[in-house]
Specification:
This protein is an alpha+beta fold. It has 5 helices and 13 strands. The strands form 2 sheets. Strands 2, 3, 5, 6, 7, 10 and 11 form a 7-stranded antiparallel beta sheet that branches. Strands 4-1-13-12-8-9 form a 6-stranded antiparallel beta sheet. β6 and β7 form a beta hairpin. α1 packs antiparallel against α2. It is globular and about 50 Å long.
C-alpha cells in the first residue's frame, strides 16, 4: 500500500526575533513556533492531503497572523481539494479571509503572507503558490523548481529579491490573486521540497540538490536547515520534504 512521508521543521533563523512562518501537513498545523528537530508524519495515499508553507510578510504588521490563518484554513478544507479548480478556489478564499480579518483593525491592516504547497491525491499531485515560497521536484540528478516566483525580474547577478508582486493580503485595499496551480501524475518514489525563502535565499539550488541526493526524510530536513544556518540564517526557515513510499 502506498503511503506519504512528510518531514518538516520551522525555525526563526539566527537574526529574527520571532517566527512568522506557518506550516500545514494535513490536519496538523504549526504556526509561528519553532521545532528543535524535524518532525516526520506518515499518511495513507488516498484522500487529498495538503502540505504547505506560508511565510508572513516581513516589514508588515501581523505577518504571523496572516500565515497562521492561511495554514489553518487550508488544513480545514484540505480533504476537499481534489482538483486544480478546488485548489484555486481555496487560495482565493484564503485571500478574502486575510483581507476580511484586517478590515477595520489598525493592528492588522497590510498583513499578508505568501504560500506554496501541494495536494496529493490517489494518483495526482497538484502544486500551487502565491508569492516567493517554493515547491521543488526532487529527482535523482537535480532539483527542479515547480512553482513560479511572484518577483520582478532580477538584475544581472542577483539571485533573489525582497520585492513580492503577489501575496495573500498585504495591501490596504482588497486585491484579487491569480494563483499558480498545476497538476501532474505521481508515482512511487516521487519527492518534493516545499520551503519559505528563508531557505532558498541563502542556499543555492545546487547545494539543495547536493543535500537531497545524499539524504532523505528527517535527515535531509535537518541538513537543509543546517545549510541555511551555516549561511547566516538571515530569515525564518520553514520546510517540508514529501515522499511517496510503498
Amino acid at each position: 500500500m502506498a503511503y506519504i512521508v512528510v518531514s518538516a521543521l520551522s525555525h526563526a533563523g539566527l537574526l529574527r526575533d520571532s517566527n512568522e512562518d506557518s506550516l500545514v501537513v494535513g490536519p496538523w498545523t504549526l504556526c509561528s513556533t519553532v521545532t528543535e528537530s524535524p518532525q516526520t508524519l506518515l499518511f495513507p495515499l488516498g484522500n487529498p492531503l495538503v502540505v504547505a508553507v506560508a511565510d508572513g510578510l516581513g516589514g508588515h504588521p501581523a505577518g504571523e497572523v496572516a500565515s497562521a490563518m492561511v495554514a489553518r484554513r487550508l488544513s480545514r478544507v484540505g480533504p476537499a481539494l481534489d482538483s486544480e479548480e478546488t485548489v484555486r478556489d481555496a487560495l482565493e478564499g484564503c485571500n478574502r479571509a486575510v483581507y476580511a480579518a484586517a478590515d477595520g483593525d489598525p493592528d492588522l491592516i497590510m498583513m499578508g503572507t505568501t504560500v506554496a504547497g501541494l495536494v496529493l491525491t490517489r494518483d495526482r499531485v497538484i502544486v500551487f503558490n502565491i508569492g516567493d515560497s517554493r515547491v521543488y521536484g526532487v529527482g535523482a540528478e537535480e532539483v527542479r523548481e515547480l512553482t513560479l516566483d511572484d518577483n520582478p525580474p532580477l538584475a544581472p547577478g542577483e539571485r533573489s529579491s525582497t520585492v513580492v508582486t503577489q501575496t495573500l493580503g498585504g495591501t490596504p485595499d482588497f486585491s484579487p490573486v491569480d494563483p499558480h496551480v498545476s497538476g501532474t501524475p505521481l508515482s512511487t518514489g516521487d519527492r518534493w521540497l516545499i520551503c519559505s525563502d528563508g531557505l532558498t535565499d541563502p542556499v543555492p539550488d545546487e547545494e539543495l540538490g547536493g543535500i537531497l541526493r545524499v539524504h532523505a526524510d528527517g535527515r535531509a530536513a535537518f541538513e537543509l536547515w543546517k545549510a541555511a544556518m551555516d549561511a547566516g540564517g538571515p530569515d525564518n526557515v520553514t520546510l517540508a520534504l514529501v515522499r511517496i513510499g510503498e
